[in-house]
Amino acid sequence: MATRAAAAARHPAPHADARDPSLTRRPCSVHVRVPFLDLQAPHHELRAEIDAAIADVLDRGWFIRGQLLEAFEAEFAQYCGVRHTVGLSNGLDALHLVLRAWDVGPGDEVIVPSHTFVATWLAVTFAGATPVPVEVDPATYTIDPDAIAHAVTPRTKAVIPVHLYGQPADMTGVMAVAERHGLRVLEDAAQAHGARDQGRRAGALGHAAAFSFYPGKNLGAIGDAGGITTDDAALADRVRRLANYGSSRKYVHEEAGFNARLDEVQAAVLRVKLRRLDEWNARRAQVAARYAAALADGPVALPQVRQGAEPVWHLFVVRSAARDRLAAHLEAHGVQTLVHYPTPPHRQAAYAALAPAITDADPWPLATRLANEVLSLPMGPHLAERDVDHVAAALRSFDGP
To answer: Are the CB atoms for 266 and 65 separated by under 8 Å?
Structure first.
């Protein structure tokens, strides 16, 4: 059962009711410029702490696999409610290395959502396996457990549900299907730092989870970064070894590995930001609730939230059959928007062999329709109420279907 975005935003994370000086009203103006995301604001807010953390790394003189990485791994594991975190170079490596550690490879199939960022599929390809797309729930845009059940074959080894836009997938349903068929479940939590499903955080809902800490994420580094979470000590150890050239001891290589380590600078910055993650997610919930209230009768379809899910609003995505005209209309009113994602993975050249020719029947029509209709509005913990109101007013003035 899905409800409007406002329903989930009525239960924000701690500190959501605290008044922030950036959330003040001002009259709307056509001269306003509302960026899609302000990447400078969080660093201005935490400048002293981040500068001190980086200086500490420089003073220590230890830049790879040091004490600060170990501290971040312990803190993020505790935050997610799992036993282990392994810091890695980026979210794609995180997905890929878990599959490798599970010995997923040539001849195997991994079920993935049809509507997602292509990295979800690429991880399967890099492992040598075959991505098997299934359609998503048209209300929440996350993978449909029933579709997973129909796609299982004797070659299926794993499922990668994506917590898209910060909305947790139906993990109760996903895990039930996986248990029936003996499948591994790898959460793609790249957009869901702090999200909950049935009270448990993303990162603790499957057998393992992969995170991206790309700068624009809810928990973002100052460069590429990623990691995995799991309760499986053997999995954590093997991923850590694979990420370090297949080595557990210097110059001893138990297997062919990769260079996919998280460095000390990124770990230090992530430790600072992790302490503010719940507060910043609560601010995002305020923005989502304000959008939902202002656009309840507007010309677009609003995001919906499944009962028991607590999203963290990495993105606030609306839908319109006139998406491109709407984006141009908002741009004319000073509002920057983005499309996540304009081309579905099965229509990318990288996967041309997977789908029939463009003139043939589309095997994943919902993914194609979403790619043509979704539009991401400005969202972030530093987006002022006055700017939310300006975006909403500009959107309401759109004369579209």
So the answer is: no
Asked whether residue 268 falls in the same domain as residue 293, the answer is no
Residue 155: per-residue pLDDT:
98
pLDDT at residue 25 greater than cutoff 90: no
Looking only at the bridges linking them, the beta strands covering 130-134 and 109-113 are: parallel
328-332's contacts with Cβ under 8 Å and 24+ in sequence apart are 329/394, 329/397, 329/398, 329/400, 330/391, 330/394, 330/395, 330/398
Residue 26 has pLDDT above 50, yes or no: no
Q: CA of 201: how far to CAs of 23, 103, 167, 174, in Å?
A: 27, 26, 11, 15
* Of 336, 128, 94, 351, residue with least CA distance to 229: 94
Q: What is the CATH number of the domain that holds 129?
A: 3.40.640.10
Catalytic residue among 157, 217, 250, 273: 217
Same structural domain for residues 107 and 62? yes
DSSP string, 298-313: SSSBPPEEETTEE---
Number of domains in the chain: 2
Range of the domain at 16: 2-38+276-396
252 shares a domain with 217: yes
Residue 221 and residue 179 in one domain: yes
pTM recorded for the entire structure: 0.91
| Residue 36 exposed, middle or buried by CB count within 10 Å (0-12, 13-18, 19+) | middle
Task: Give yes or no: 217 in active site.
Answer: yes
Q: Is 227 helix (H, G, I), strand (E, B) or coil?
A: strand
The single-letter DSSP state of residue 343 is S
